[in-house]
Design goal:
The chain is an alpha/beta fold. The chain contains ten helices and ten strands. The chain has one domain (about 1-280): TIM Barrel (Alpha-Beta Barrel), CATH 3.20.20. Helix 1 (about 20-25) runs parallel beside helix 2 and helix 8 (about 200-205) runs parallel beside helix 9. The radius of gyration is 18 Å and the shape is globular.
Amino acid sequence: MRADLHSHTTASDGTFTPRQVVERAKAKGLAALAITDHDTVAGLAEAQAAGAEHGIEIVPGIEISSVYNGHDVHVLGYYMNTVDEDFLVRLEELRDVRHLRNKMMLAKLAELSIHITLDEVAARKKDAAGNVGRPHIAEVLMEKGIVSSMEEAFSRYLGSTGAAYVNPPRITPEEAIDLIHAAGGVAVLAHPGLYKNPELVRTLIAYGLDGIEVYHPDNNTEDEVLYSALADEAGISKTAGSDFHGMRNDIVFHADLGNRSTPLTTVQELRQRAQKYQIAL
Ligand SMILES: [Zn+2]
Ligand SMILES: [Zn+2]
């Protein structure tokens, strides 16, 4: 009875529809799955319907992009009121920034004599309502033979040290936490191993973080030990997730569902922690 608390669908940059992700999670033997698309909850309704059919609990989630000192910091949210009007308007604003960023990255690629249009990138979306992200740009780079793999696309162009990387102003991690709390959800710091900044994690715990994603494919053993200790010390939740993004060219992008998982009790714990934010609504 395990839960995977981090997955993406075609509502953002995953390649599986919400239904396909739920069906794969079921096949992997998971009892619960959180759908955590980037800056959107558009995949949830379909996932929940599929979850009800297949007897797998779907945890409503999101992964919000924020920036701290020029670096991407992702904050996961669980159990928000996903029909809350203010929340949905804020998410739309965040997606506008994603759109701006895509345009800025394509402009940088053009400076490097790599000409890609926004339409070519948007055509890679698997779902018309989904949003566009760097993996879609990477696919076009592969299609045009400019790079031969996703890894190369990120290391040469799109990753944080890549030649076309840009990071327009975004909300801070603290603002992301506030946004999730205001919608009645709990805020969990995603993949802290990527930030190499334990001080930031301490700052966000002090600010009001409800949990840390201690187990993630990008956290190494040292990270697990460190962040597990920090979470215990603060009395906040420890979560786990695969960050499944579907398959690209027959290769599982990030890690497969269930690659990292928590006992079901973690799901109950998050739901309980969310209650204090919901009372205020
Ligand atoms: Zn992330
Ligand atoms: Zn993710």
